[in-house]
Amino acid sequence: DTEVTQTPKHLVMGMTNKKSLKCEQHMGHRAMYWYKQKAKKPPELMFVYSYEKLSINESVPSRFSPECPNSSLLNLHLHALQPEDSALYLCASSPPGTGAPYEQYFGPGTRLTVT
Amino acid sequence: GENVEQHPSTLSVQEGDSAVIKCTYSDSASNYFPWYKQELGKRPQLIIDIRSNVGEKKDQRIAVTLNKTAKHFSLHITETQPEDSAVYFCAASIHRWGNQFYFGTGTSLTVIP
Predict the structure, then answer these.
(1) pLDDT digit string, tens, across residues A20-49
(2) Is the pLDDT of residue A70 over 90?
(3) Interface test with A, best of B6, B37, B43 (most A CBs within 10 A)
(4) What does the buried/exposed string (b/e) look like for B21-52 if buried means 16 or more CB atoms within 10 Å of the residue's CB?
(5) Shortest distance, CA B78 to any CA of chain A (angstroms)
(6) Nearest chain A Cα to B5, which residue?
(7) By the 8 A CB rule, do B87 and B38 touch?
(8) Percentage of chain A with pLDDT > 90?
(9) pLDDT tens for residues B42-71?
(10) How far apart are CA B86 and CA B91, in angstroms?
(11) pLDDT averaged over chain A?
(12) CA distances (Å), A90 to each of A14, A105, A113, B53, B68, in order?
């Protein structure tokens, strides 16, 4: 299996809802990422998990809450979002880097609309 | 932190011509430089990459060059085809804190048939 998968593909939620995005990979990668991407802009890093531990939080508002239950799964819990949070949310993974950089592979993304 | 600049932001070429996209980076510790192609509504797809111990890498019609001294790297696409039309992102990675990737602002490439 050489893919990163994400569910759901599309999500519409109200500002008071609670929802979760899910990401899965079975490539044995030990670094997993959440990015937010607005139209015609580059992916914007939100969180990095390295060996199931949160290693980078790019000052993301607390209404976004990441979780890494095991080495294959990454979740992003959403609560009380704002309309400006509407975007494509991309998950990515890469092999562990021990002194050498490795490729990063993206999932297909979840298109989130906050109403 | 690392700052990656990418030019041009838009590029139109005739089918069969070459396209060149350039990126500069600021942190000399960056040691891995991938290029991603993103078609409308799809995920960024890794198309080619280069590590800091290599000056040039080629894969069929695509090549990447790296000048570590000047801190810049470029993507070259030869014999362009309409299916090359997409947004291209460069990135620089520093192996610290879990392989953090810094992206350029993107180049929208249009290949005119």
Answers:
(1) 999 999 888 888 999 999 998 999 999 999
(2) yes
(3) B43
(4) bbbbbeeeebbbbbbbbbeeeebbeebbbbeb
(5) 24
(6) A42
(7) yes
(8) 70
(9) 999 999 999 888 899 999 999 999 999 999
(10) 16
(11) 91
(12) 20, 10, 14, 30, 30
Percent of chain A with pLDDT over 70: 93
Distance between CA atoms of residues A46 and A41, nearest Å: 15
Tokens of B2: 């690392």
What DSSP state is assigned to residue B43?
-
Cα B80 versus chain centre, distance: 15
DSSP B52: T
Alpha helices in chain A (DSSP H): none
Residues 6+ apart with CB under 8 A from A62: none
